[in-house]
Amino acid sequence: MASTSTMQSRESDSNTIPFCPIVHPTQKEFNDFNTYIEKLEKEYSQNYGMVKVVPPKSWKARQADYEESLDDKMIVGPIEQNPYGKGGIYECIHIMKKSIPFREYKKKARDFDKVTDNKTIEKVEDLFWKNISFSPPLYGSDMQMSLFDDGVKWNMKEMRSIMNDGLTSNIAGVNTPYLYIGSWKTLFAWHKEDLDLGALNYLHYGKPKFWYCIARSDAHKLESFAKANFAESFAKCPEFLRHKTTVINPYQMIKKLKGDIKISKMSQEAGEFIVVFSGAYHHGFNWGYNIAEAVNYATLGWLDFFPQSKQCRCASDNVSIDHNDFILTLLKNRPELKNRTEVKNFQAWLKQKQLEEQENMASEEETSKEQNSSEEQVEMKKSMIPVVVPEKKKRGRKSKKAATIESDEDSNNHKAETRENSTEPQRIQKKIQKAEKQSKQKLKKEQNQQKKSVKNLNEANKALSSPIQQTEQSLTQSPPQSNRKTSRKNSLNMEVEKVEQEVN
């Protein structure tokens, strides 16, 4: 690489974070953005998530000033940032406030600039993390605006990458730039770019912007750490880091991971670029009042990551690009790329994806047909089961002829039912007659028993009167000789009374 590069060796100490590489391109290198960025990716992206690019001294982004020329412009819907949490783990709540002129915002922001004046990087970091939860700052973010002069190299509103060549329309913040107006402690939470794109960031003016970044190869380590500490957020949305509300002190994270993560940091000064490679997580904060601009870019190497990129589904305004439309538009605008390995690999993946989708559709259709066929068979079986509807019985005299029979199968049953209905009164009459006969027989039996009891009583009286008469005759003829005869009479009288009681 023709440019000079400055970088510190990577530290294994879990208490420190190394700085990312700093590169100084030549004017020739700087003139060809896409070629130069591809070189940077190949050289640094495996171990670093970002590099700082210091443009040639002859280059200038803007001829006009950044003070009076901007004072009357409005910062639309600035965001009040409210981080809450503890132990280096925070969730940031964003509250939109009323629009404010640059002039007014700048005046308020500069009241806090003295906090970081003449401070070392380490001291500013320490101040930020100790005071992150106090005095929520106001951030002018995501403003659709550019401050680059026309015709300037690396001009974000005119920059061409395969991202622009593959889209048929503009997407704000993706292939058109956003402007950011910062103040002390305003921050951007840990996140990757939409669709895992790369990002180009330029600090136009003001206090430094501080960066932390993790190489794409270790992105999963941050994700695992974040999921463990934000389990509830992860349960609601697996891509919750794309909400840009998760703030994690990197020193706490590397301490937990014992330094086993490819992370770097950098302080960006006014007039410098930060290039964030595709798929790299980044996070940072502002030292004071400043003005920055950012846009996404894509290299051919990004085509390897595009298919695996995931999107949050919580909001309807998430960036989404159709894979097939993108590659067709790209090759239409850049036909010279059709033989590039990255393009061929992407087309092969896309073809395989389309085949799998067709197979899935065919499988779903077959499953649907089988299900419908099964349901139809069930309905047919149900329709074959005869449904017996009970006939209403007619009141009054029954017809001797059977009612009209709708089917031969039901004819015999219907006739039997008709015969049964016609003989019902006869059965009832017979039951009544039988009951009357049984009642008469019972009454006659009781009468016979009564007659028999009377007969027995008469016979007993007759048997009793004969010995009494004889005794009386004997008594009249001679005086009583003993009490035995009197006892016998009394005994006979008791028997007579007993018989009479039984008869009654």
Provide an overview of this structure.
Residues 20-62 form the JmjN domain. Pfam families: JmjC, JmjN. This protein is an alpha+beta fold. It contains 12 helices and 17 strands. A hairpin with a 2-residue loop joins β5 (79-86) and β6 (89-96).
Summarize the SSE layout with pairings:
Blueprint: E1 4-6, E2 22-24, H1 27-31, H2 33-44, E3 50-53, E4 74-75, E5 79-86, E6 89-96, E7 100-101, H3 102-110, H4 121-131, E8 138-143, H5 162-166, E9 178-182, E10 187-191, E11 198-206, E12 209-214, H6 219-229, H7 231-236, E13 246-248, H8 250-256, E14 263-268, E15 273-276, E16 281-286, E17 290-297, H9 323-333, H10 341-384, H11 411-477, H12 484-503
Parallel strand pairs: 2-3
Antiparallel strand pairs: 1-2, 3-15, 4-7, 5-6, 5-8, 6-13, 8-9, 9-17, 10-16, 11-15, 11-17, 12-14, 12-16
Helix pairs in contact: 11-12
Count of alpha and pi helical runs:
12
Query: Structural class of the secondary elements?
Result: alpha+beta
Architecture of the largest domain, CATH level 2? Sandwich
Query: Which stretches of 5+ consecutive residues score pLDDT under 50?
Result: 4-13, 398-406, 474-487
Molecular shape: elongated
Distance between the termini: 143 Å
Q: What portion of the residues fall into strands of 2 or more residues?
A: 15-25%
What name is given to the CATH topology of the largest domain?
A: Jelly Rolls
**Whole-number count of domains:** 2
State the name of the first-level CATH class of the largest domain. Answer: Mainly Beta
Mean pLDDT: 84
What is the H-and-E element order? EEHHEEEEEHHEHEEEEHHEHEEEEHHHH
Please summarize the sheet with the most strands.
11 strands, mixed
Main β-sheet, spatial strand arrangement: 1-2-3-15-11-17-9-8-5-6-13
Number of extended strands = 17
Q: How much helix, percentage-wise, in residues?
A: 40-55%
Organism: Tetrahymena thermophila (strain SB210)
Pfam family, one: JmjN
Domain JmjC: 142-314
Domain JmjN: 20-62
